[in-house]
Amino acid sequence: MKKIRFVLIILLSLFVSGCVRTRGYSGPELPPEQIATIRFGTGPSNIDLVRSVVDTIEANFLGIDMLPGLHDYLVDVSAKGAYTNCFAYKTVDFDDLNECLQKNAVCDCFEYLTVYKRCSFPLTYLTCEGDFQSAPGHRYEIEVENAARGIVTRVRDDETNRQLGEHSCIVTGQSSGQENLYQGTGRATAAANGFFYCP
Prior knowledge:
Elements: H1 2-17, E1 22-23, E2 36-42, E3 47-54, E4 57-58, E5 64-66, E6 69-80, E7 84-92, H2 94-103, E8 113-134, E9 139-147, E10 150-157, E11 162-185, H3 187-192
Parallel strand pairs: 1-5, 2-9
Antiparallel strand pairs: 2-5, 3-4, 3-6, 6-8, 7-8, 8-11, 9-10, 10-11
């Protein structure tokens, strides 16, 4: 029983420690009105954050608390491009179909058929860098967004709702990936994707 309690305490402390922002300053913990809180996010759904750094300190997914002042930040992101070279394929849940056949004489195979599309997409890796001045007690959002001139970061002060700056991101690499996109089940979905026979 003591072992279980000890393990639960360890797990709880790990969970709680994972639910606080990174502290980007040394010394005792300061009240919110004496620090600047910086959070990172992405506007469009095709951009994913890979790494966020402020003044060489890596932030966790909740952000980072810093002493007020001038900050340099770096954000690494990946941006997924449009789907190309898509092709449809079907799968049949033969376990459920056979179970139906054992219970019934009449089973519609199309009810157990699912259609997917496998699509390729380009993946671009970018690094975004910039700086801004923070004030005590303020919260800041650094958003990675699409703009007319490409992918940029925008720094916004939540307290004043003012944009403090916009910085361009540079491409650091490219690759490609594939994704299976669910299309649906049943006879109509199958026919719409060119499957007229089951299995």
